[in-house]
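S1.2 Input.
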Amino acid sequence: MPKMKNLKACSFCDRQVYKLANPSRGLCAACYNREKRNGSLEYRNRERPICTIGGCENPNVAQGMCELHYRRFKRHGVAEHERFDKWGHRDSHPLAHTYYWMRRSYNGQIDQKWLDDFWEFARDVGDRPTPKHRLRRIDPAKQFEKGNVFWEARKLDVEVKDQEGANAYARAYRAANPELYREQYLKKKFGKDLGWYRETLESQDGVCAICKKEETATGRLTGMPRAYAVDHCHTTGKVRGLLCSKCNTGIGSLNDDVSRLRSAIAYLERHC
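S1.3 Output.
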């Protein structure tokens, strides 16, 4: 390391600096600015309040807490040692999986207080009775909030320990609740309900809007006949009607391009 040269010592604090702020008095910048600010070179002995968390004597930084407890409070939602040591980060809390599932599956339908504070969510919903219970809304038209949720016992006796178990549960759930599953799918992806689906299918005489035939494909997980696909514009998102899986795949393969569809029709007419 090269030797430092041409350093000058402050006449008050003996700090070694390259340049003195007040050469005539030999003061460094820190001492010179302190004198301008306080009217004296002497340090002020200001007593700062201490942290309000029991047993902590560190100086108060914000909201009555020291820097350590304040950071813990901002990150984990709790500053007390006892509760922090019990759960640590919120990811280790028993309700963490339910919380992340709710935020992932029902974005925009959750009380802002719960989104801002996981620990308030945990206090409001209470302990999960058993691993087979799931958080449900009392009124599905309202958001997830205090007073509108309850723990519902899982009705299907299927073990979910790995991906195979999850697939088995999905098959059993769809088979046991076909209309409920369809309602959730339509609302989440298209903003429609089961009433709209039934009215549209009835207006199409219960068949595909293009080929005028009934759906023949079966579901991969359930083995049951598939519901008609909801055809929509992939650019605007506008819903157009209900199609069988073959017709829906066909126009999707041609990117909903009318000119390509006409070319395909002309091609078939020339070669048939």
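S1.4 Remarks. The radius of gyration is 34 Å.
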